[in-house]
């Protein structure tokens, strides 16, 4: 129990030091996790940045990938997630002689973000979802920017 409290304290100290504000909470992360697992045909791959780490997981995430995301255990604990970059598509292997098929569920994923009113930023076929951020002006919430304008 002491380790978890120390970990939370270190995360909070870094959030304060970087002057980040909270965008998500455990309930919103949990709802997103549940909807992704239960409503989508596959769990989309993502890149994660954790508050206490300078390394991204995975480090390279610039192109479509062949693997799926671990939405069950990969995001926890939620309070330590600075942001995730979701690519709601993947390359499905069709055989050695055929090119992979691109499976894209971007519309379905975006629908979940809108339904749950989760702020996000879209860039190059990926969706950034922030646990913490220094400036929310560029985030979309539903069909409008988080600051209320479009």
Structure in words:
There is one protein chain. A four-stranded antiparallel beta sheet has the order 2-3-7-6, with no helix packed on it. Helices cover 27% and strands 23% of the residues. It has helices spanning 2-17, 26-39, 106-115, and strands at residues 21-22, 46-50, 81-86, 89-92, 101-104, 121-123, 126-130, 132-133, 140-141, 144-145.
**Class from secondary-structure proportions:** alpha+beta
Give the number of helices.
3
Instruction: Report the C-alpha radius of gyration, rounded.
Output: 16 Å
What is the end-to-end distance? 45 Å
| Topology as a string of helices (H) and strands (E) | HEHEEEEHEEEEE
What general form does the structure show? globular
User: How many strands appear in the DSSP assignment?
Assistant: 10
Main sheet characteristics: 4 strands, antiparallel
Strand arrangement, largest sheet?
A: 2-3-7-6
Which blocks of ≥5 consecutive residues have pLDDT under 50? none
Beta-strand residue fraction: 15-25%
Mean pLDDT, to the nearest integer, reads 91
**Share of helical residues:** 25-40%
Give a brief rundown of this model.
27% of the residues lie in helices and 23% in strands.
Write the layout of secondary structure elements.
Elements: H1 2-17, E1 21-22, H2 26-39, E2 46-50, E3 81-86, E4 89-92, E5 101-104, H3 106-115, E6 121-123, E7 126-130, E8 132-133, E9 140-141, E10 144-145
Antiparallel strand pairs: 1-8, 2-3, 3-7, 4-5, 6-7, 9-10
